[in-house]
């Protein structure tokens, strides 16, 4: 079945989750293709994906030489999706912290409600996070508050990594000028989309922390976001956003 929707899933050591997440996405009534960006996982994640490709023609993989960062993984995926003429491009984690069924809600926010970007938001309707330690919930929640304060964006979940982009957004943004590779990548993509005047819709989701595999979050990634947001805001004063 030909579809204009593709879900990009970056992986590093996700052997416990990858087959289940692929099968779940492909079981949805709304069809999606999948592109896995695989960063040379030593646990054999790539081999599992390649085995699944024999069953699913709509499953694709880009293998990279090492752990090169979340941002560069998504940028590689965006460029691949544009080259293959997809109209709706999604970001999603492999670990079921993002419910695959919410892909349909993100898609409809763009295809039916006029969104240029749709964000799966943990904080647009309260705090909808399950299984996180309270300290991490507070860190994430106040990080978004901090980003709103510094940037002026009226987005409740500035660090969310569950999103749908329309093709015109990804074609407008200069992907080679996106600077951040870690946690702050998600902020920079939203901020740049917002500065270009695109319509951003937040879709409420329930975020559930992974039960399989290991989290990739670290203090260094968080620090990049704290100081990076200030630098990003300052650079924006000297940047033209025209489309």
Care to describe what's here?
- By secondary structure, the protein is of the alpha/beta class.
- It has one domain (5-236): Spore Coat Polysaccharide Biosynthesis Protein SpsA, Chain A.
- The protein is 40% helix and 16% strand.
- It contains eight helices and nine strands.
- The strands form two sheets. It has a seven-stranded mixed sheet, with helices on both faces. Strands 6-9 form a two-stranded parallel sheet.
- Strand 2 (33-38), helix 2 and strand 3 form a beta-alpha-beta unit.
- Helix 5 (134-151) packs parallel to helix 8 and helix 7 runs parallel beside helix 8.
- The longest helix is centred in the middle third of the chain and has 18 residues, at 134-151.
- The radius of gyration is 17 Å and the shape is globular.
- The two termini are 33 Å apart.
CATH superfamily: Spore Coat Polysaccharide Biosynthesis Protein SpsA, Chain A
CATH domain topology: Spore Coat Polysaccharide Biosynthesis Protein SpsA, Chain A
Number of domains: 1
Give the helix level as a range of percent: 25-40%
List the keywords.
alpha/beta; 7-stranded mixed beta sheet; 243 residues; globular; two-stranded parallel sheet; 8 helices; Spore Coat Polysaccharide Biosynthesis Protein SpsA, Chain A
């Amino acid at each position: 079945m030909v579809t204009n929707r593709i879900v990009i899933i970056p992986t590093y050591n996700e052997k416990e989750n990858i087959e289940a997440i692929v099968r779940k996405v492909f079981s949805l009534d709304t069809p999606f293709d999948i592109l896995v960006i695989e960063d040379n996982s030593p646990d054999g994640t790539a081999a599992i994906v390649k085995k699944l490709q024999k069953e699913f023609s709509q499953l694709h993989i880009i293998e990279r030489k090492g752990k090169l960062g979340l941002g560069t993984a998504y940028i590689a995926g965006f460029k691949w999706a544009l080259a293959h003429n997809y109209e709706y491009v999604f970001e999603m984690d492999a670990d079921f912290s993002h419910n695959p069924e919410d892909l349909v809600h993100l898609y409809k926010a763009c295809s039916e409600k006029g969104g240029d970007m749709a964000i799966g938001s943990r904080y647009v309707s309260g705090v909808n996070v399950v299984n996180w330690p309270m300290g991490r919930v507070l860190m994430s929640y106040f990080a978004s508050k901090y980003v709103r304060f510094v940037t002026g964006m009226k987005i409740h979940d500035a660090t969310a990594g569950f999103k749908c982009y329309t093709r015109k957004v990804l074609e407008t943004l200069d992907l080679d000028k996106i600077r951040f590779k870690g946690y702050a990548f998600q902020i920079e993509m939203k901020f740049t989309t917002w500065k270009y005047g695109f319509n951003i819709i937040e879709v409420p989701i329930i975020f559930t922390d992974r039960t399989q595999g290991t989290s990739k979050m670290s203090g260094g990634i968080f620090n990049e976001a704290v100081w990076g947001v200030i630098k990003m805001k300052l650079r924006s004063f000297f940047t033209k956003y025209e489309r």
